[in-house]
Amino acid sequence: MRVSLNSLGAEPSFSNGVPIESQANMNDDFNGLDLINQIDTWPYYQQDPQKYRHFMEDYYYFMVDGYEKPLGYTHSSFVRAIRWPDTWKLEHDQRLLTLSGNTTFEERTNAMQATLRRGYQDGKVECLRKWGSEMIPVISGNGDHVLDMDLCGVDIFGIIAFGVHLTAYVRASEGVKYWVPRRSQTKTPFPGMLDNTIASNLASGQTPLDKLVRRAAEEASIPEEFTRKNIRACGTVSYQMTRTNDGRPGCQHHVQYVYEMELQPDMVVAPANGEVERFRLMNLQEVGKALMQGEFNFRAMTWVAHFVRHGLINAENESQIVEICARLHRKHDLFRP
Questions:
Q1: Tens-place pLDDT, residues 232-257
Q2: Minimal CA–CA distance to 320: which of 36, 9, 27?
Q3: Could you say which of 37, 224, 243, 288 is the most buried, measured as most Cβ atoms within 10 Å of its Cβ?
Q4: pTM of the predicted model, to two decimals?
């Protein structure tokens, strides 16, 4: 069902009880499920087990000795392109890619870093041509912190990656407006695209709130003390993609810690570290139109969650509301069918 955002039902409320105003002249149709289908593209085993098994023939299971279940899915193109050190065991018949012979966290991390560094130096894999200089945790299905890897390896190994995301808004005389950044033309991935007000990876040892507070100051010139006082936690959004950040076949498991914050009308959100070209205040109609035209990067699912959270998408105006809500919170259950 296509939902026209200018025909929304009852006005939703923020935590302070003040509703998000209905937006006049909203002529664009918004389809939340269509947007989700463009991002959360990994098939569901339960829907068609045979089709899922066929799909997985292009992927290897990233395993670590001592752990029964996969920690990620690696596309076969990466398996062929990378020179794997002796610390790896490849079983092509079963499509297993196993980090072996390392029994401690430090040994596993060092072995992974050596693998990524070799790929970076070879320069044959696009994902590895830029060193991330940020250590990302690799978490098992049981919540064990198995090892760390450089950011550049996340798309290669298809691990569960965590991030923090903030939607900042103000109340103008004509209604609520959102502070939307346009990424720098030199910022990879997704140069020049629209994004959440603040969006960042969650590196090893970092907590969501502390990371977001710091990045809001660094990226958008929002004082840390203001953020800590006014930010509101809104849960998580999770999804799984069948592509890498540069558009190649791959796997991405995402979990986003989502936050919202109302800013004072006289506050100016301004780029501070060069990662954002500019910030712009956009109303609901403009955001909805930009989302449907593909101007936002894959983090756009946080906007769908925002619309649901505030009743802009609801059971009265969207027949697929149950499917939308379920897809916003995908369970990352890595397994071998």
A1: 999 999 999 999 998 999 999 999 99
A2: 36
A3: 288
A4: 0.90
